[in-house]
Write a structure and sequence with these properties.
Elements lengths: L4 E4 L9 H22 L7 H4 L2 H14 L7 H16 L3 H19 L8 H8 L4 E6 L16 E4 L11 H9 L7 E5 L2 H11 L2 E5 L13 E4 L5 H9 L1
Parallel strand pairs: 1-2, 1-4, 2-3, 4-5, 5-6
Helix pairs in contact: 1-5, 3-4, 4-5
C-alpha cells in the first residue's frame, strides 16, 4: 500500500534535544533556589545546598516508582518532586505547591527555547502537501508553543495519555486520526526501542534516525536506516518509485 501518513517523533529527531534539556534542567532549578533565597533573606540556607540537582534527579525516579500510572508524564513527575522537596525544605503545603508550579512554568519556557535542524521547516512544508502528518512524543515538548505546529494535523503527547512509547496505543491513535492503516504509515524516530520496534510490529514502515549508532546491524523488514532527518525526502521518493 502507498504511504499516505507520516508520524514523527520530536526530540532528537527534529532537533538536538540534549542541550535544550540540559539548559532547562539547570536553569529552572537554579531559578527556584534563587527565588526561595530571595523570599527568605534572613536565612543562610539555600534550597540547592540542602537538595543539590542530583537529589532532585533521584527524587524524580522515586516519584515515578510511587506513581507508576504517571511514569510517562514527565512534567507531572517534575512538579510533584519539586512540591515534595520544597515542602520538606520547610514551606507550607500551599506555598510549596505554588513554588513548584512557578518553577515548572520556568522549566517549560526553557524547554521550548529550541531550534529545529535547519532543513526541518522547509521539509515539513513540502511533505504536508502530499502526506497527512502527526507527531507522537514521549517528551513534554508542546508543539502548540512552537512554529512547527502548523505542519502537523495531529499531535499526541503519549506520556500524558499514560501510554508512552513503546506502547502501541499512541501509534494507533495517530493512525486513526490520520485515517490511515498501519501499512499506509511511515514512522520517523531515533529510538530503536521506542520508535522502531513498536511501529514495525504494527505493520508500519519506519525511517530510523540512527544518529546514536544503536540497534542491530541487520534491519527488520520495513525499517530504513537514516543518519539524519534531512535524508527523509530521498527515502520517500525511493519508496514511492
Amino acid at each position: 500500500m502507498a504511504i499516505t501518513a507520516l508520524t514523527f517523533d520530536l526530540d532528537d529527531t527534529l532537533w538536538n534535544n540534549r542541550p535544550v534539556l540540559e539548559r532547562a534542567e539547570t536553569g529552572h532549578y537554579q531559578w527556584l533556589s534563587d527565588a526561595l533565597a530571595a523570599a527568605s533573606p534572613d536565612t543562610a540556607r539555600t534550597f540547592m545546598t540542602d537538595y543539590p540537582l542530583s537529589a532532585y534527579q533521584q527524587y524524580r525516579l522515586d516519584v515515578a516508582q510511587r506513581f507508576p500510572l504517571k511514569r510517562g508524564d514527565f512534567t507531572w513527575i517534575r512538579e510533584r518532586a519539586l512540591f515534595e522537596m520544597v515542602e520538606a525544605y520547610g514551606l507550607s503545603r500551599l506555598r510549596a505547591r505554588l513554588w513548584a508550579a512557578h518553577a515548572i512554568a520556568h522549566f517549560l519556557d526553557l524547554r521550548h527555547d529550541l531550534t529545529p535542524y535547519p532543513e526541518v521547516v522547509a521539509m515539513l512544508d513540502t511533505l504536508r502537501r502530499g502526506y497527512r502528518i502527526a507527531a507522537i512524543t514521549n517528551g513534554n515538548a508542546d508543539l502548540k508553543r512552537l512554529d512547527l505546529a502548523e505542519h502537523f494535523s495531529v499531535m499526541i503527547a503519549a506520556g500524558e495519555l499514560h501510554a508512552p512509547k513503546p506502547d502501541p496505543r499512541a501509534f494507533l491513535a495517530a493512525l486513526a486520526r490520520l485515517d490511515a492503516q498501519p501499512a499506509q504509515g511511515l514512522h520517523i524516530g531515533d529510538s530503536w526501542r521506542e520508535d522502531v520496534l513498536p511501529a514495525q510490529r504494527l505493520g508500519m514502515q519506519v525511517a530510523w534516525i540512527d544518529a546514536k549508532h544503536e540497534g542491530p546491524c541487520e534491519l527488520l523488514p520495513g525499517v530504513h536506516r537514516l543518519t539524519h532527518v534531512r535524508e527523509l525526502p530521498t527515502l520517500l521518493a525511493r519508496l514511492a518509485g
